[in-house]
């Protein structure tokens, strides 16, 4: 049944869509203005949805066309999705604000790359909201495809051959993943005649069919999330995209498919014994955290370093599976994993934006030539340093809070092994953050080609401040993100 | 052999052939065709699901057919986007390859 | 009142830090930052007596008890003296690092819950890098990298320890609460090992001692003074806070005592081979931290609750003495009047427990731990060793280095006599029962090990011992690290391999099959 205020969910998805249509219709300069004008609307909608969920303590549901599942399709906002909507509504406008400089429409004319950027940015926002709100697995497939189709053009927006190749790699591998997901969906529908997450969660049994479907869908989602060893596309795509796009791709887009993986394992399958597959996902995540960090240590360019750091941080996210599925300490694992999602979203977006400022100002992003750059760009290096603090998991930061929860979950559930990537990855992150900061803070002279835009630096700083402020999240925030999570199985609440 | 089983086997064969092509064929255009092959196989599976009518017990369940149609549209859009990228890539560089090493500039490390 | 001071201990230096980020206020904030530790000093002095006080705000808990108050007061005093004399036209980068280190250094003594402690401990460890390592000098860069590696490793180890502590105490993360739950915790052994390893890295316990000489040699004298004086005590307060003295733990205590004594003698022996006076002081610090650990280990084995207070006093004495010795290097580098040498001599031998100095009181404070048997013998031997090492230091001091003078601000060199006298005699004002140190027995007990040590020092000099490289075991750590770094290209090759299409495609299929197998495994059972 549609709850009061459920229409808000439709508005949240449709507001960016409306922006896209208007941008097409008006063209040119209008796209930029429309995106920036609709950003506060999106934020207010997301905030209002979150408030309604928190106020009622139950998920907010909208049944499209008044038809209830299994026949109809529902949109459903629970604590987790409302939180992700708010995060999106903060990061996308930040990236948009940052990008005004680079993607300003030339006076009196229309630039194709600018128009593409603004439209795709709004498309990403719409698709993400649909991913977070969708409650039908096929509907979510469509949302995920929309997300990919909007993200790919952002990678190659400057039209250089290497970015086109990176975008193509991204698209083809993502298609590989999505077809695998779709096959799983078909099998589940064949088995249960419904794809609604809530209904499936009540009916599901541990049959070979269900496990096959889960394996296919999960692998597909891992390919889109770029979990090691499926990170084939991520470093070139994230490192070559323009800074504002990289921030959204790294901070939000990979979280979309990760969010669906969470939906699948903790909302559809929670009644089943998922310890063994969850451990497998955790193992891949642990490998990613170590492997990605080691590669980040070896990159010569800042943007590639930050991209490989994303590979590593995605690994941390997957430690959530074994830890949150454990009978003891599951709630700690869930809170820690979610905190990691949020902390990484803000810190990484801020770092990519800073890397962009840096590349514009210095004309390159080769770390070896950063000597003394911190004196020329103090604010940018402050942002990079604070973002690094969160990546390393030092207090006070959301990254620390996440590790603190995850480690306690390791202890409570007796799964020692996951402490190794958590702590080891933190040490390695310390190494790569040191590699960026030490030369920059040292004595040396850099040539600054163009003085940095103060507004761009402040946007990045604002995002990183949110990443740090997450450390002060109150206890009832963690209750909020558990709203709507099924309690069955695994004692996971 | 019932039509369902036959369709299932054909679907499996299509998926298998497509997967092989997707993994082993280096050219992006061929990968794209292979993806469409896998897609056709998956849509066949949807068809069987519809025939079994698992949902409500009627002979033909219309929901999977709606899904197949949506899926075809999505696959079409994906193919169009990929072809556009391939054409742009060919126009910009004169070569179409996914090998990251083709784009590495000396002294940049990594990509 | 004391609650306000307790909050101001952190809030006041934080205000200075905030002012540094406003450009027009920056010069003044930096010039006046010697005022920043003042509330800490006052809070420390007020907290010396009376029951523990605690304040909680924003989810953080600050708690002041007697051992913490003593260390806080001494550390704040040192920070005030050095900050007041240090400030020339240092850049903002240095100033911010200095303030951050100061906040951490004062804060660890008053942190009342795990998260605050962890945060402040990170502050006293990591920003200190900026006080000595921003340089083109490869030796300083090396010292900085080694320092940071140990600091980060220590942080990681402590995070694991704290997570276990918190997991064992569901009722809250206050230090008092987790320590009350520790004796019954299933992870007690693991916690103790991690706590000792983590804080041992800060205190330079063997085998984690190598960074300390490198650090002090690379650091300018004022920086070395605060790091060796106040900074290292973060490790000491860590052990005081996180060892469960209420419950006697014979094995763990014994092991810590052995580790402590090994460190104590190791520091003396290696220190005696050093020529650089800063290195000698660094090894003396290592040795003294070994003595403290040994005493804490014995206290832990015997379940002596008083061990924490005793060792806080011992550490507070070392805090001022070691800082004053570092400053002496600069103050006496060019001119060395006889009275100054005598003062430096008393200061140096105070570490060995010379009667009438603060060191004699410190030694007396450790009597309850080193009460009898082998512990007493070893403690006396370590006093003799300290006396030898400090005599060796005095000979290095006399041969002087002009560089030390240029590193020391003139005002700091001027106040050195006051600092030295303070280090010698201030502990008398804070000792529980100073009269005991003036009995004939105590005077004699304090005197003869020092005399033997001083007498043995020239004998040692006759032996031609090879010089051990600065940082001794660090060479092996670095070699191991270099070997790890050489694995890097292999990882890169693996990455390139994995990111080829066929490999990634096959990986995807393997993941499908592995997930299926993992799921069906349960189904089959």
Task: Give a concise summary.
The complex is a heterotrimer of chains A (493), B (111) and C (525). Chain A has 493 residues and is mostly helical.
> What is the CA-based Rg of chain B, rounded?
19 Å
The overall average pLDDT of chain A, rounded, is: 90
Q: Summarize the amount of helix of chain B as a percent range.
A: over 70%
Count, helices of chain A: 20
| Strand-residue proportion of chain B | under 5%
Number of strands of chain B: 0
User: Greatest chain-chain interface?
Assistant: A-C, 67 and 58 residues
Number of structurally distinct domains of chain B:
1
Number of strands of chain A: 2
Helix/strand/pairing category of chain B: mainly alpha
**CATH domain fold name of chain B:** Helix Hairpins
Secondary-structure element string of chain B: HHH
Label the CATH architecture of chain B.
Orthogonal Bundle
Give the mean pLDDT of chain B: 82
Q: Main sheet of chain A, how many strands, which sense, barrel?
A: 2 strands, antiparallel
Q: What class, by secondary structure content of chain A? A: mainly alpha
The ordered string of helix (H) and strand (E) elements of chain A is HHEEHHHHHHHHHHHHHHHHHH
């Amino acid at each position: 049944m549609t709850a009061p205020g459920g229409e808000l969910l439709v508005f949240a998805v449709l507001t960016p869509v409306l922006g896209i249509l208007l941008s097409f219709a008006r063209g040119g300069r209008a796209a930029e203005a429309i995106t920036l004008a609709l950003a506060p609307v999106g934020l207010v909608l997301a905030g209002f949805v979150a408030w309604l969920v928190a106020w009622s303590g139950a998920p907010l549901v909208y049944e499209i066309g008044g038809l209830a599942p299994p026949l109809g399709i529902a949109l459903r906002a629970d604590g987790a999705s409302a939180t992700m909507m708010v995060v999106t509504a903060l990061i996308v406008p930040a990236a948009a604000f940052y990008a005004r400089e680079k993607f300003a429409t030339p006076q009196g004319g229309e630039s194709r790359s600018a128009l593409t950027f603004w439209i795709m940015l709004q498309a990403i926002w719409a698709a993400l909201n649909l991913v977070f709100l969708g409650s039908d697995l096929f509907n979510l497939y469509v949302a995920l495809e929309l997300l990919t189709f909007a993200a790919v053009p952002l990678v190659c927006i400057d039209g250089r051959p290497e970015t086109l190749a990176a975008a193509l790699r991204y698209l083809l591998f993502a298609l590989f993943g999505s077809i695998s997901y779709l096959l799983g969906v078909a099998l589940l529908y064949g088995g249960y005649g419904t794809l609604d997450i809530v209904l499936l969660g009540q009916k599901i049994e541990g049959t070979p069919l269900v496990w096959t479907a889960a394996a296919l869908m999960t692998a597909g989602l891992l390919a889109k999330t770029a979990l090691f060893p499926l990170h084939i596309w991520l470093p070139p795509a994230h490192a070559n995209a323009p800074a504002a796009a990289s921030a959204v791709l790294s901070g939000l887009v990979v979280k979309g498919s990760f969010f669906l993986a969470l939906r699948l394992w903790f909302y559809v399958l929670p009644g089943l014994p998922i310890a063994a597959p969850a451990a497998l996902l955790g193992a891949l995540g642990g490998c990613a955290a170590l492997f990605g960090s080691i590669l980040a240590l070896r990159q010569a360019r800042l943007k590639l370093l930050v991209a490989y750091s994303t590979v590593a941080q995605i690994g941390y996210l997957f430690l959530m599976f074994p830890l949150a599925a454990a009978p003891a300490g599951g709630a700690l694992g869930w809170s820690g994993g979610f905190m990691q999602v949020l902390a990484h979203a803000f810190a990484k977006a801020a770092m990519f934006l800073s890397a962009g400022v840096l590349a514009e100002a210095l004309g390159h992003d080769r770390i070896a030539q950063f000597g003394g750059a911190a004196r020329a760009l103090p604010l940018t290096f402050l942002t990079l340093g604070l973002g690094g603090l969160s990546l390393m998991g030092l207090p006070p930061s959301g990254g620390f809070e996440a590790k603190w929860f995850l480690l306690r979950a390791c202890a409570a559930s007796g799964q020692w092994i996951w402490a190794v990537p958590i702590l080891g990855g933190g040490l390695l992150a310390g190494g790569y953050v040191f590699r960026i900061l030490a030369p920059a803070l040292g004595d040396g002279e850099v040539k600054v080609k163009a003085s940095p835009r103060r507004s761009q630096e402040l946007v990045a700083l604002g995002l990183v401040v949110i990443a740090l402020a997450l450390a002060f999240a109150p206890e009832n925030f963690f209750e909020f993100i558990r709203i709507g999570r099924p309690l069955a199985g695994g004692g996971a609440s | 052999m019932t039509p369902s089983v036959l369709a299932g086997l054909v679907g499996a064969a299509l998926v298998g052939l497509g997967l092989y092509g997707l993994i082993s064929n280096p050219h992006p255009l061929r990968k794209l065709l292979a993806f469409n092959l896998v897609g056709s196989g998956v849509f066949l599976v949807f068809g069987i699901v519809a025939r079994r009518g698992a949902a409500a017990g009627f002979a033909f369940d219309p929901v999977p057919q709606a899904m197949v149609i949506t899926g075809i549209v999505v696959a079409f859009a994906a193919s169009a986007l990929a072809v556009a990228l391939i054409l742009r890539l060919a126009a910009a560089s004169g070569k179409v390859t996914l090998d990251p090493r083709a784009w590495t500039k000396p002294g940049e490390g990594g990509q | 009142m004391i609650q306000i001071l307790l909050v101001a201990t952190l809030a006041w230096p934080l205000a200075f830090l905030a002012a540094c980020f406003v450009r027009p206020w920056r010069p003044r904030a930096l010039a006046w930052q010697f005022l920043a530790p003042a509330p800490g000093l006052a809070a420390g002095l007020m907290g010396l007596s009376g029951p523990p006080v605690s304040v909680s705000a924003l989810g953080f808990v600050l708690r002041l008890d007697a051992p913490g108050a003593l260390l806080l007061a001494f550390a704040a005093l040192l920070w005030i003296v050095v900050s007041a004399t240090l400030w020339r036209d240092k850049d903002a980068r240095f100033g911010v690092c200095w303030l951050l280190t100061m906040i951490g250094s004062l804060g660890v003594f008053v942190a009342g819950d795990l998260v605050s402690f962890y945060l402040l401990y990170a502050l006293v460890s990591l920003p200190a890098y900026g006080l000595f390592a921003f340089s083109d000098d490869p030796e300083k860069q090396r010292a900085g990298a080694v320092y940071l590696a140990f600091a980060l490793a220590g942080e990681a180890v402590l995070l694991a320890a704290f997570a276990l502590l918190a997991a064992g105490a569901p009722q809250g993360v206050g230090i008092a609460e987790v320590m009350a739950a520790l004796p019954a915790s299933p992870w007690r052994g693991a916690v103790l090992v991690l706590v000792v390893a983590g804080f041992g890295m800060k205190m330079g316990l063997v085998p984690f001692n190598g960074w300390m000489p490198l650090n002090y040699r690379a650091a300018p004298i004022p920086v070395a003074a605060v790091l060796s004086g106040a900074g290292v005590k973060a490790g000491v307060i860590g052990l005081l806070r996180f060892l469960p003295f209420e419950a006697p733990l014979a094995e763990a205590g014994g092991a810590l005592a052995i580790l402590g004594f090994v460190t104590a003698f190791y520091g003396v022996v290696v220190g005696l081979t050093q020529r650089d006076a800063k290195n000698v002081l660094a090894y003396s610090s290592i040795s003294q931290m070994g003595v403290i650990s040994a005493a804490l280990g014995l206290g832990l084995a015997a379940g002596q609750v008083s061990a924490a207070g005793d060792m806080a006093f011992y550490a507070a004495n070392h805090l001022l003495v070691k800082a004053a010795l570092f400053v002496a290097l600069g103050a006496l580098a060019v001119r060395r009047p006889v009275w100054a040498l005598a003062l430096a001599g008393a200061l140096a031998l105070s570490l060995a427990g010379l009667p009438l100095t603060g060191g004699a009181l410190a030694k007396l404070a450790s009597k309850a731990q080193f009460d009898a048997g082998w512990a007493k013998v070893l403690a006396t031997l370590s006093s003799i060793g300290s006396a030898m090492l400090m005599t060796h230091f005095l000979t290095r001091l006399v041969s002087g280095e002009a560089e030390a003078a240029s590193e020391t601000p003139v005002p700091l060199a001027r106040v050195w006599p006051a600092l030295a006298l303070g280090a010698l005699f201030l502990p008398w004002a804070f000792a529980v029962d100073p009269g005991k140190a003036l009995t004939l027995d105590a005077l004699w007990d304090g005197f003869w090990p020092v005399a033997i040590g001083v007498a043995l020092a020239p004998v040692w000099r006759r032996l031609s011992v090879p010089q051990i490289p600065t940082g001794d075991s660090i060479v092996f750590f670095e070699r191991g690290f270099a070997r790890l770094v050489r694995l890097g290209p292999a990882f890169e090759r693996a990455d390139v391999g994995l990111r080829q299409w066929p490999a990634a495609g096959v990986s995807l299929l393997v993941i499908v099959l592995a997930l299926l197998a993992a799921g069906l495994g349960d189904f089959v059972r």
